[in-house]
């Protein structure tokens, strides 16, 4: 599972990337609604054509969910 993120450099330039999640976290999320009612996952990281292990977000459990931080570095040159 991944989430897309956009970084706006200026009014005309936006960079798009994605953040991925550890398979154990994704499996845990898919056991809960609304995901559980849709029959499970159709893609895992190893078969995702855009997967990059360097973009896996480190998460910590917080209450009934997760919290994580990812910093995007942008070189404008």
Compute the CA-based radius of gyration: 15 Å
Strand order of the largest sheet: 1-2
Order of helices and strands: EEHEE
Structural class: mainly beta
Low-confidence stretches: none
Helix share bin: under 10%
**How many β strands by DSSP?**
4
Global mean pLDDT: 86
Report how far the terminal alpha carbons are from each other. Answer: 31 Å
How many strands, which pairing sense, and closed or not: the largest β-sheet?
2 strands, antiparallel
**Gross morphology:** elongated
Beta strand %: 25-35%
List the total number of helices: 1
What's the assembly state of these chains?
single chain
Outline the structure in words.
It is a single chain. The chain has 77 residues and is mainly beta. It has one helix and four strands; from the N terminus they run E-E-H-E-E. The chain has a two-stranded antiparallel sheet. It is elongated.
Lay out the secondary structure.
Blueprint: E1 2-8, E2 14-20, H1 23-29, E3 59-62, E4 65-68
Antiparallel strand pairs: 1-2, 3-4
Short description:
This protein is mainly beta.
Which terms summarize this structure?
about 80 residues; two-stranded antiparallel sheet; mainly beta
């Amino acid at each position: 599972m991944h989430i897309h993120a956009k970084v706006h450099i200026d009014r005309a330039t936006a960079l798009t990337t994605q953040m991925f999640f550890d398979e154990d976290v994704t499996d845990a999320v898919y056991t809960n609604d609304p995901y559980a009612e849709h029959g499970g996952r159709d893609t895992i990281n190893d078969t995702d054509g855009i997967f990059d292990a360097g973009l896996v977000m480190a998460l910590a459990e917080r209450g009934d969910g997760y919290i994580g931080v990812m910093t995007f570095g942008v070189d404008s040159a």
